[in-house]
Amino acid sequence: MERVTQMLGAGLLLAVLGAAFAAPWLAPHAGEAQFRDYLYAPPMRVRIVDVEGQWRAPFVHRWRLADRVMRTFEEDRSERYPLRWFVRGRLVGLDAAAGQPLLLLGGDGLGRDLVSRLLLGARTTLGVALLAAIGAVLLGVVVGGLAGYAGGAVDEMLMRLADLVLVLPTIYAVLALRAVLPAVLSTATLFWLLVGLLALVAWPYVARGVRAIVAAERGREYTLAAVAVGAGPIRILVTHLLPATRGFLTVQATLLLPAFILAEATLSYVGLGFAQPAASWGAMLRDASNINTIADFPWLLSPAAAIIVVVFSVNVVSGAGGRGGALGALTR
Amino acid sequence: MSPFALFLARRVAFAVLLVLLVSSGSMWLVSLAPGDYATQLRGPGVSSATLERDRERLGLDRSIAEQYGDWLSGLVRLDLGTSLRFARPVRELVGMRACNTAILAATALFIATLIGLPLGVIAGSSSAAGLVSAIRGLSVFGMSLPPLLTSIVFAFFAARTGWFPIGGMTSLRAVDSGALAGLLDIGWHLVLPALALALPIAATLERLLARSMHETLQEPFILAALARGIPRRRVVWRHALRVAIRPVAGIYGVIVGGLLSGSFAVELVTAWPGLGRLMFDALISRDVQLVAGCAAVGSVFLACGNLLSDFALAAADPRLREE
Fold first, then answer.
1. CA-CA distance, A332 to B197, in Å (whole number)?
2. Are B209 and B245 spatial neighbours (Cβ–Cβ below 8 Å)?
3. Neighbouring C-beta atoms of residue A249, cutoff 10 Å
4. Are β-strands A47-49 and A84-87 bridged in parallel, bridged antiparallel, or unpaired?
5. DSSP letter at B230?
């Protein structure tokens, strides 16, 4: 049972990562494409039965604006727009002749397709989170390996530093560092900046564990044997000691992922992360920050659902019943 | 001096050092950052003469080291300086906001314990596999609900149903309707933010306690207690819980950190007038001493959480006190 749910979680996570990877092909529209007649349009319903009760290939109806002020729409049942597969280099879309966007999750305040933005936003958000996790692991391995191997004063100093960073709530540390940098940056600069900042505040989580493992393995017979045959410290560390941390690193990287996704979301939500027109889950959440808007157009909450799905599947995969997993939920 | 007192003394020293380091660090960080209060106040396209005048007026023309020295000497007298933006003593501003954050965090912690503790005991001691895995599943889901998102979703429900206020801490009509009505009004505003903050913490508590409870129940002293004819319910809730709670008590420091992180998001979403919001605004407007003040109070919270966790451990484990 335990195994099955873990496999399901891993499958879900892989599916999201795959969707992010294939986003330009999966997304029905470009992330920036605006459809002026579809500001805040609700999700289109995919139907297989037409008005006369006949079975059809999947199709959608057009949304007609019913009330310009309240932005309520009603379905125009007079015409069917069948879904077309593999059109214009994308998985699914409508006939170009129809002049009609396919809005499966509705439109945002600028009339952009939420499905496309979610998919393309996944690239940004998950990209930042993945790269930052790799960065944090690398930094943590270097510092932790050094501290564990050297021991003594170096160990003491590095670990006190790690303790100090660990005790700070991650989001405040990132926020403070981000807030003192220029507010407006290009999307690419910001991407790498966030990767760097997140890795910078999260390395101690990795370093502490790596240090403990390396320090323990150092006294084992196989290490002494390696020393006896004349292997140098770097060789011992890299080829003999660090491989012992592999399992720990995998778990740690998985645990950092949700924390980083959330950090991006929080930063973008408060206006210090990705901004228009770039798509990221946090930036989309910022579009939903006006309470009156989401009350009327709840589909704007879809990035929140996306984040929860990813965090949930990570928690399932990492066996969040375990102690490390449980604590991971708090480090955000 | 007993070893435990020595240990506590070391922890207190670390706490003081933490507060000093964090507030000083944030002060230097903001001072060295591009832009200062004058540039943020005036916006772009202002003559440098105007900026110079502003800086002179606000005392920002002195060197950073000099400003830091002044602030530090004030800190010794517990004077946290003056906010540039609000032109009021930082202590006054921070005190009020910290109080609001503390209300939010304490309520959340209370709710989390109220939900997490009994569920943890049940999940750790029950032999009904269905119940145990249901609680476990709920917890894993609860852990996946970051306060940022939950509070947005809650605000959505509040706006849709009108059952709860969508934000803020007080409503206008409750201003002059007596103390009790005022308290009720605050409580009313508190429900959703505190719940959003509490859910992942409740789930974490449940998981930790369930695991530790399960391990404790394998111990010989439990078997001995059962053999003496003490009812199982009493063994679980009295004897085993006292032991099982130890690892949970040990992480209260982490929980306070989690509360602070979470409350930042919740405060921004629900417009709760707390420390996180103040700190954010101060950072953006480069209000140096206010940032340092917020960081100082925030780290006091953290340090308190860590100390609390030490005391809780000592209370739960007599061996720690005696050794």
1. 12
2. yes
3. 20
4. unpaired
5. -
Please list, in sequence order, all residues whose beta carbon lies within 8 angstroms of the beta carbon of residue B36, skipping any fewer than 6 positions away: B55, B60, B286, B288
Tokens of B117: 């503790």
Q: The tokens of A104 are what?
A: 């499966």
Is the pLDDT at A56 greater than 90, yes or no? no
Does A315 contact chain B (CB < 8 Å)? yes
Q: What is the ipTM for the molecules in this complex? A: 0.84
A295/A4 Cα distance (integer angstroms)? 37
pLDDT average, residue stretch B195-209: 91
Question: Rounded to the nearest 5°, which phi and psi values hold at A331?
Answer: -75, 0
Of A273, A255, A253, give the one whose Cα is nearest residue A332: A255
Cα gap B154→A178, rounded to integer Å: 28
In chain A, which residues have their Cβ closer than 8 Å to the Cβ of B145?
308
Q: In which residue are the tokens 């790690």 written? A: A162
B contacts of A284 (beta carbons < 8 Å): none
Dihedral sign from CA coordinates of B244, B247, B253, B256:
negative
A89 alpha carbon, distance to own chain's centre: 25
pLDDT band with cut points at 50, 70 and 90 for residue A309: very high
Q: What's the whole-number average pLDDT of chain B? A: 84
> pLDDT tens digits for A113-132?
888 999 999 999 999 999 99
First CA to last CA across chain B, in angstroms? 11
- The answer on pLDDT for B176 being more than 70 is no
SS3 at position A35: coil
Q: In sequence order, which ranges of A85-186 are alpha helices (DSSP H)?
A: 114-150, 152-167, 170-179
> What domains does chain B contain, in order, with CATH numbers?
90-322 (1.10.3720.10)
Query: Looking at chain A, how many residues does it have?
Result: 332
**C-alpha–C-alpha distance, residues B242 and B234, integer Å:** 12
pTM for this prediction: 0.86
Q: Which residues of B touch A314 (CB under 8 A)?
A: 144
d(CA B234, CA A60): 62
Asked if A109 contacts A287 with a C-beta cutoff of 8 angstroms, the reply is yes
Task: Return d(Cα B261, Cα B276) in angstroms, integer.
Answer: 8
Check residue A280 and report its DSSP letter. Answer: -
Question: How far apart are the C-alpha atoms of A218 and A265, rounded to whole Å?
Answer: 41
Q: What are phi and psi of B89, to 5 degrees?
A: -60, 135
- Residue of chain B whose alpha carbon sits nearest to that of A331: B258
Task: Measure the CA–CA gap between A107 and A104, rounded to whole angstroms.
Answer: 9
At residue A64 the predicted structure's pLDDT band, cuts being 50, 70 and 90, is confident
Digit-coded pLDDT (tens) for A186-195: 888 899 999 9
Residues of chain A with CATH 1.10.3720.10: 115-330
Task: Give the model's pLDDT for residue B320.
Answer: 67
Is B184 part of the contact surface with chain A (CB cutoff 8 Å)? no
Q: Which fold would CATH assign to domain A115-330?
A: MetI-like fold (1.10.3720)
Cβ of A176 and B167 within 8 Å?
A: no
Measured between alpha carbons, how far is B190 from B171 in angstroms, rounded to an integer?
A: 12
pLDDT for B257 beyond 50: yes
* Nearest CA-CA partner of A199 in A211, A188, A191: A191
**Mean of pLDDT values over A24-46:** 83
- Interface size between A and B, measured as CB pairs under 8 A: 154
Between the alpha carbon of residue A247 and those of residues A209, A210, A250, B310, the distances in Å are 11, 11, 5, 31
